[in-house]
Amino acid sequence: MVIRSESGQDQFTLRNRPRSERTIDIGFKLLTIVLASLVAVVLLCIFLTVFNGAQEAMASFGLSFLVTSGWDPVNSQYGAFTAIYGTLVSSLLALLIAVPISLGTAIFITENLIPRNLREVIGMMVELLAAIPSVVLGLWAIFVMEPLLRPFLQFLYQSLGWFPLFSSPPQGPGMAPAVLILVVMILPIMTAISRDALNQVPMELRQGAYGVGSTRWIAIFNVILPAAISSIIGGVMLALGRAMGETMAVTMIIGNSTNFSWSLLAPGNTISAMLANQFGEADGIQVSALLYAALILMVLTFAVNILAQWIVGKFSLKYN
Amino acid sequence: MTFATQALPSRSLHFNPRLKRNRTDKLFTSIAALFSLIAVMPLLLVLVYVLIQGGKLISVSLFTQLPPAPGLEGGGIANAIIGTFVVTLVASLIAIPVGVGGGIFLAEYSSSGWFAQFIRVGNDILAGVPSIICGVFVYSAIVATRLFFGQSYSAMAGGIALAILMLPTVIKTTDEALKLVPRELSWGAIGVGASKFVTITRITLPSAFTPIATGVVLAIARAAGETAPLIFTALFSPFWPEGLFNPIASMSVLIFNFAIMPYEAQNSLAWAASFVLVILILGANLLARWIRRFASS
């Protein structure tokens, strides 16, 4: 189609798209679809590989794998209770310590308590902490944190030794230092998410609260935190998933004992630490048992992550 | 006749620091300040120790020599530095094209379709898969099956494991960056007759370059420090790198192996490797921040 102006010159020509252009367009779209599908393919492959490998152990140990604590490669008897207990206890305890600290930090750097420059510096330092590789934190934990911590743990054992959680003498690596290094590792993500959540709370809510005469912290506890709580809980769940899967620093400091102990001062184990230590050298049914443990870890982190996303999507207050 | 004006003292509008509510307020502020101090301490302590312990060992031989055999002194971490670069490069070469391509699909072709939503959820789940599981997967799929020329442990396998870790970050940043590009730009391009392919590669993607670059740099920095996916894929090697299909040393695995050895020389090499690794990673993070600031100004 050609539109002619009065002078008779072509002003606008509707051209047909050449075949090559159309082929490139369709080809490019197909390419991006394939690349995007790779995510699903990789995820499926990971799950199937772990699930397949775990079949043998699932058949021979069944669900008792989850609640027995023997790990005996000589007699091929495996139970993952020590590692599951270690994974849950270390990450939940780490969460218990990290939640107040990161929430306090997030409030401190969003609520105009200190000058803006200082706030940004603190925020940046917490973010940079997330960039430190976990293996470096592990190295630091072995050579610096654990020796510093030992007198305190010794004191705990001597004064509270009757309590099952402190019932063994600290001997270097153990559950307690592992929990502390996990706290360091999940602080940044929780602080970042809480900070974003608090920043999203509209200024009008704060102004309203101050306007009716509340002090800063009355406003924080009664207005600002309730408004941001769903994102904060989502962040907490994400951090929990991160803590359960965290490997290197924990492996280096937890002591990797397959013997079960209630004591936090004794060496323990987590699923990921067990994988890191044994998977390379394992063979036969031990591989399968390790993959069974890996499957449990995967299901745990899946559940926690999906729950986190559901909470954020479902309950987050939509402002603006 | 007198009014009881004094019953309403004008001082009630003044700040009285001795009131219970104001004292509670101060208490909570101090607690928050204390918590912030606790949150900042680990970074400072780790940095100080890494810089002091690792900085002592910085010398030319550190960057030119192989690690010593157990029990011997001296040596360097040259092979591990090269190895970290090689493995991270392999991972980037896989993860960046795949991730950017996938991100283009999510943002440009099917922003709200069911398939795109499905991929987004899958991407978030993949981001939450523990890094050790990536290692286990690549070990079972590539190393144990000897997929590459009958080789078991290889730099290639390590790179693929790291690529799986990087992929979700790259996809997510590309998706979000492309969505921020004003629609008018691509409408304009299509209006003057550009094809969809040309619009995306010449108009949309370049406008979203900065946020994508920031995300990619951060993903690379994170991959360079990862250990768990490498310990049974790329393994470790005390020798110079021997190509992509042989085991290769990397700084992170070197730190892990040497930290738990009972030898002084190995322990101090672990600190030196931490020093180099931390400097590289913090440098990359600051670079990413700088890119962001440079673009926004």
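The mean pLDDT of chain B is 87.
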